[in-house]
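Run log, item B.
One chain of 359 residues. Sequence copied directly from the ordering sheet:
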Amino acid sequence: MQTIEKKDIRILTLAELQEFFLSHGDKPFRAKQVWEWLWKKNARSFEEMSNLSFATRQFLKEQFEILIPQASSVLISKDKTIKTAFRFKDHALAEGVLIPAENRMTACVSTQIGCAMGCKFCATGKIGFVRNLSFIEIFDQITMIGRQAKENYNQHLTNIVFMGMGEPLLNYANLLKAIERVTAADGLLMSPSRLTVSTVGLPKMIKQLGDDQVKFNLAISLHAANDKKRNEIIPVNEQNSISKIIDALKYYYAKTENRITFEYLIMDRFNDTLADAKELAEFCKNFPCKVNIIEYNQVDGTGFRKSSETNVKAFAGFLEARNMIVNVRRSRGEDIAAACGQLAGKSENKIKNEFVKSL
């Protein structure tokens, strides 16, 4: 007898769920009960849905499943950062990070398995692209990291950054659908102002964000304000030059009026001079923005090194003297390869191999 493969019930819209119950002789309000369990209470099984009859729960179990990823490994840093490798149904792995701070709990989540951008300083780029994550897989990382925040630090998530593995804007539909579930009144009800999407800078997709008038924050992984240096570390810059990025961001700002964040990974003797700071300051005159200077975290085989504290202070001071908003982001979770640019650094072969085994 052939086994019929069940689908994750969360693929259904509320209207489709209502139609399902109606077609099986039940009341439409049953769908709203289930919907609340799935998206507000984040039920991991039908057994948790205590206001449904046993018969209804059993029936749903026969028809559907709730595909929660497994925590393949969980590493806790000396600074209390937690990195989790999430294993999905096809055995592919993606990493997510809980970053605790004095007044915030931030979830850093992935949008793809691997990444096609090939940035020279980044461990994830060495994997290459494997596949997109579904909106459910993105959402599940958030809720599971949220549980870690509650269980380990007795706090709720305050912020979400889509800065893990992958280029979020190349998984646009799933990204936006996951964000809709996170911000919806019948979802996690988080403010869009608490969410940040980071992109390497794809002009066409940045303009699409403007057309969609998104409410969340946009961060651009810039790392150099001239094409020559940026081409060296970010291959896609050759097709998406800084002038094109500027045009796209002007368009985006005109549509949304959202202040733009620029991420600047500062690296020794590459982009940490005052001349580099001057180029960045000129670049930032094009729109209201802020700059996050990020310490470089060691990734084997890249050839890049962390900039000196003296150079970081001088670089930040140059920008601040020009009345720019500047934050210096210190490394978090570097000892467990959970810091910026390190995701998948210690498990890239495992990610490839586990996925191949599932084919």
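Observations after the first pass:
- The chain is about 35% helix and 20% strand.
- The CA atoms of residues 46 and 60 lie 7 Å apart.
Flagged for discussion on Thursday.
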